[in-house]
Amino acid sequence: TAITSAKIQVNGVHLHYQQTGEGNHAVLLLPGMLGSGQTDFGPQLKSMNKQLFTIVAWDPRGYGQSIPPSRDFPPDFFERDAKDAVDLMQALKFKKFSLLGWSDGGITALIAAAKYPALINKLVVWGANASVTQEDVRIYNGIRDVSKWSEKVKKPLEEMYGHKYFAKTCEAWVDGISRFAEKSDGNICQQLLPHIKCPTFIIHGAKDPLLPRSHAEYIHERIKGSR
């Protein structure tokens, strides 16, 4: 039941991950914007069933302990994260695995499930979106200045990154994700959703301050058999 912490070289970067459990069902936990395995999934690493599951929580490049490199947001940053995530699990010798993705990690998980269907067992996403609307951009700009964040949300991230990296990366994220809204349909991964074949469970928090419910409904309508 111990949680091991290690780094492994994947696609030219050293990715940090935590692993626990010895079950036959491997599960990758994918954190959200600025998140890490530890900050976003501490309770899951501690209390998910370790007889049933082998649990891996990763820090995407530029986040958590997967620094260097510094985090950047090129147009394909979600695809890059999806490839990193899948290649990490393959480097750890998992032939097939499930994905639990929250927020940006949910988007990454959707892309991974669509692009690598033979590798993905099951998919759970919450707080994920397949496109960015002008209304979303307005909401994102509301969190651009981290000094306005609540102490509860801000504190663990400031402790992990230091104020300067945290503030700079948050601004860069807002710019990076807002760029999708410049396309006619605001598309991130809409065209990929019908390619997802694994059992999929979509969760939406009724009080989610960043994401309107319509995003969850859109994903549900386009992934056949999803719940």
From TrEMBL:
The answer to whether UniProt assigns keyword Hydrolase to this entry is: yes
Q: Which SUPFAM superfamilies match?
A: alpha/beta-Hydrolases (SSF53474)
Gene Ontology molecular function: serine hydrolase activity
InterPro entries (UniProt xref): AB_hydrolase_1, AB_hydrolase_fold
- Recite the UniProt keywords alphabetically: Hydrolase
Give all residue intervals belonging to the AB hydrolase-1 domain: 26-139
Which Pfam family, an example, fits this chain? Abhydrolase_1
Q: Which PANTHER family match?
A: VALACYCLOVIR HYDROLASE
- Name of the protein in question: Valacyclovir hydrolase
- Native organism is Struthio camelus australis
